[in-house]
Amino acid sequence: MGKLRLGVLASGRGSNLQSIMDAAKAGRINVEVAMVFSDNKDAFALERARKAGIPALHLNPRDFGSKDEYEQNILALLHEHGVQLVCLAGYMRIIGKVLLEAYPNMIINIHPALLPAFAGLHGQQQAWDYGVKFSGCTVHFVDEGMDTGPIIIQAVVPVYDDDTVDSLADRILAQEHKIYPQAIELIAEGKLKLVGRKVYTKQ
Ligand code: GRF
Fold this sequence. Notes:
The protein is an alpha/beta fold.
C-alpha cells in the first residue's frame, strides 16, 4: 500500500508539524508529508518544512477577494501535491466549505484542551484560568464549527498547584506531539470508523 499523502496547514512555530515529519521520517507512521502550507509567510513551520526538503507554500489571504477564492487556491495546491489527508497544526483560520467539501472527513486538527471544554483560542490559558485539575489535548475531525468535530484521540494531563500557564502548556504540548502522529497513523491504516459523531477504532 502506498503512503498516505499529507498536507499540513500551519500558521506558527510548527512543533506539531515537526513531530509529524519526525515520525514519518523514522517510519513510525506510514505517511509522506507532501507539502506544508501557511497563511503566514513568516511562520517558522515553513522554515521547518524547507529544512526537511518538503515543499513550503504560502498564499496571503489579503490577495484574494473572498474566503472561497482563497480556499480554492489552497485546494489547487493540495491537489497539485496529491494530498489525501489535511492536518491542521496551529492553523489559525476557520476551514470553510470549499475545503470541507473537497476533503470530507479528511481534515483533522489538534486542540490544546479536552474538548468540548475550552474550544477556541488559548485552550491552555482558558483551562488554567478556570482552575481545572486535569486538562489535555484532542485530535478531532474538522467540521464547519469551531473545534466541534468528532473526537479521534484525547490525552489527559494533571494540573499541579505550582503550575504556571506555561508549564501546563508545555505538559500538554508533549502529549500533542504523541497523539497527533498516532491519530494520523490510525487513519493511514484505515482503522477508524465514524458513526454519527462517534469515532471507533477497528481491531
Ligand atoms: C498547539 O498548541 C495546537 O494544539 C494548537 O496550536 C498550537 C500549535 O503549536 N492548535 P505548533 O505550531 O504546532 O508548535
